[in-house]
Each structure stands twice: as structure tokens, then as C-alpha cells.
Amino acid sequence: MAERHRIHPAVDVEAPLPSSSHAPSKPLQTQPPPPPKKKRRSCCCRCLCWTVLTVVILVVIIGAIVGILFLAFDPKLPKYSVDRLAISNFTVDDNMTVSATFNLTVTTKNPNKKIGIYYRGGSHLSAWYTNTSLCTGTFPVFYQGHKNTTVLSLLLSGETQLGSGLLQELQQQQQTGTIPLVFRGNVPVTVKLGSLKLPKVTFKVKCDIIVNTLSSSNTISLKSSSCKFRLKL
């Protein structure tokens, strides 16, 4: 039998391979790496916690110290009173300028058994009628010991100008015998607890009194007298 030869179609080896798509290829998109973890926030939180804890501990320690000192020394506020007022000069000239000289007798009481008070320099005393300062002075420098009562004579002097309305009001009160005065005092002090001296503070005292007259020729009587005390750090 004669052999049959199959003829295969010719293939061009230089021809390009067929492509499934004629669209241009797109570059591969890669996801960006995750951001690094922030440690700054955790550090700030840790610092804040330590700060709050330190403040709380300090407050507790200070409170404990204050409590121990309070139980050990049993502190009491000093007491002040105006006992007598003498006026050696109170004159008004044609320009309505008032010249006043007051002699004030004040009693200071330290009721504490273990606390002393050093009255320092730099004090300021003043006598007021309504909102006008009439005269000024100073508080003496001295040490007031435990359970001590001291009577002081304070001199205040000065000049001021009163308005016509205020002077007329003062004259009317002079006739009725009820003249309100206010004495103010700012006194630097050092408190001594046993043998320990505390930092300097300021005693602020305000005394409201009512007198019958401001005439230097008449006897002056105190109709009422009350003093308030507060501490300024």
C-alpha cells in the first residue's frame, strides 16, 4: 500500500504570539505599610498618671502634718478689742480739711498654750469715717507669749479733706451722739509653734465702733465695739 503523507500548514516562528487583550497592562498596586504605633501618647499618659499620683501623695502628707500639728498645739485665733478712744485733736479748717489725732487703747489676747506671736515691722493702721481715711498709725513690734494679754496705746494722726455733704452728715451725727468709725489694721506676724517659727503672714483686723462725739473737749464713750480677724498668707 502506498504511504499517505499528511501535509501540515507552515508556521512562522518569527510571528508574535497572539495576545488575549490589546489593552495596555496596568502596574501592580501595592498597599502602603501600616503606620508605626505611636508611643508618645502612652508616654504622656504615664507621665500624667505619675504627676497626679505625686500630687495626691503630697496632699495626703501635708494633711497628715497639719492634723498632727493641730492635735499637738490646739491653735486658737488671737482676739482684739478696742477699749477706749481719746481724741487730742479734731479740727476742720475753712477748706474743709480735717486734722485728727486719735489715741486708741487696744487689748490683744493670745489664748494659746504652746503658740507665740511675733509682731513684726511694716504694719499699717487707719481710722475711717464712712469711706474716708481720717488718720493712720503703726502697730508696735513685740513678742506676745503663751496665754498672754497685752494692752496697747496706739497713736493715729493725719489730715484729709471732707466734702461738704460728708461734713454735714458728720455734724448731724455729732448732734445725735452716734458716730460710726472703722479701725483697720494690717500687721505682719511670725507665728511660733513650740520652737518652730513659721513663715511670715499678715493679720488683718477690722474693728467697728460707735462713739458719742469726736470733740476733743468732751468725754468720748464707746457705745459699741466689735472686731473681726482674718489671716492673709
Number of helix segments? 2
Give helix % range: 10-25%
Share in β-strands: 35-45%
Radius of gyration: 45 Å
Distance between the termini: 134 Å
Structural class: alpha+beta
User: SSE order in H/E notation?
Assistant: HEEEEEEEHEEEE
Largest sheet: 8 strands, antiparallel
Shape: elongated
Low-confidence stretches: none
pLDDT averaged over residues: 85
> How many individual β-strands?
11
Pfam family, one: LEA_2
Main location: membrane
Transmembrane segments: 47-73
Membrane topology: Single-pass membrane protein
Topology:
Elements lengths: L39 H34 L5 E14 L4 E14 L4 E5 L4 E6 L2 E6 L4 E3 L3 E14 L2 H13 L2 E15 L2 E2 L3 E11 L10 E11 L1
Antiparallel strand pairs: 1-2, 2-7, 3-6, 3-8, 4-5, 4-8, 8-9, 8-10, 10-11
Structure description:
The chain is α+β, with helices and mostly antiparallel strands and 233 residues long. 20% of the residues lie in helices and 43% in strands. The chain has 2 helices and 11 strands; from the N terminus they run αβββββββαββββ. Strands 3, 4, 5, 6, 8, 9, 10 and 11 form an 8-stranded antiparallel β-sheet that branches. A 3-stranded antiparallel β-sheet has the order 1-2-7, with no helix packed on it. It is elongated and about 95 Å long. The mean pLDDT is 85. Pfam families: LEA_2. The chain crosses the membrane at residues 47-73. InterPro entries: LEA_2, NDR1-like. It is a single-pass membrane protein.
